[in-house]
Amino acid sequence: MPWTDRHEAHWRANQRITVLLLVIWFVVTFVLTFFARELNFSFFGGPFSFWVAALGTPLVYVIIVAYYARYMERLDRQHGVAEDHQDSA
Fold first, then answer.
1. Which residue of 36, 52, 63, 81 could cross-link 56, Cys pair, CB 3.0 to 4.6 Å?
2. Could you give the CA distance from residue 83 to residue 73 in angstroms, rounded to a whole number?
3. Rounded (10°) CA dihedral 19, 73, 58, 37
4. Please, what sign has the CA dihedral across residues 74, 75, 78, 82?
5. DSSP state string for 25-84
6. Residue 85: φ, ψ to 5°
7. Distance between CA atoms of residues 39 and 76, nearest Å
8. Model pLDDT for residues 11-21, shown as the tens digit of each residue
9. What pLDDT was estimated at residue 85?
10. CA distances from 11 to 1, 18, 48, 76 (A)
11. How far is Cα 53 from Cα 61, in angstroms, rounded to an integer?
């Protein structure tokens, strides 16, 4: 399949969303977790920093993956490069 303008637009959109989600991942993983140590108040019986690191960060990861999957499915369909999965069973 030759590389067309449609594929180029799809690739640029893919790069933009990937960079954006990686920046969010970096901020949540390193910046938010680093500064969470200074949040010294009790939250459900434990320090808030524990809840941010133990529950908040993995929750954000799940949201990032789910958003990326939906976004890419929509983007593939918009640019006509979607793979239609049909079982022949």
1. 52
2. 9
3. 30
4. negative
5. HHIIIIIIHHHGGG--SEETTEEHHHHIIIIIHHHHHHHHHHHHHHHHHHHHHHTT-PPP
6. -95, 105
7. 42
8. 999 999 999 99
9. 52
10. 15, 10, 40, 10
11. 12
- Map tokens 């390193």 to a residue: 30
Q: Quick check: helix, strand or coil at residue 85? A: coil
Quick one: residue 86, left, alpha or beta (phi over 0 = left, psi -120 to 50 = alpha)? Answer: beta
pLDDT in tens, 24-72: 999 998 888 788 778 778 878 888 888 878 888 899 999 999 999 999 9
37 close to 49: Cβ distance less than 8 angstroms: yes
Helical packing angle, 5-26 and 57-78, nearest 10°: 170
- Give the predicted TM-score (pTM) of the model: 0.77
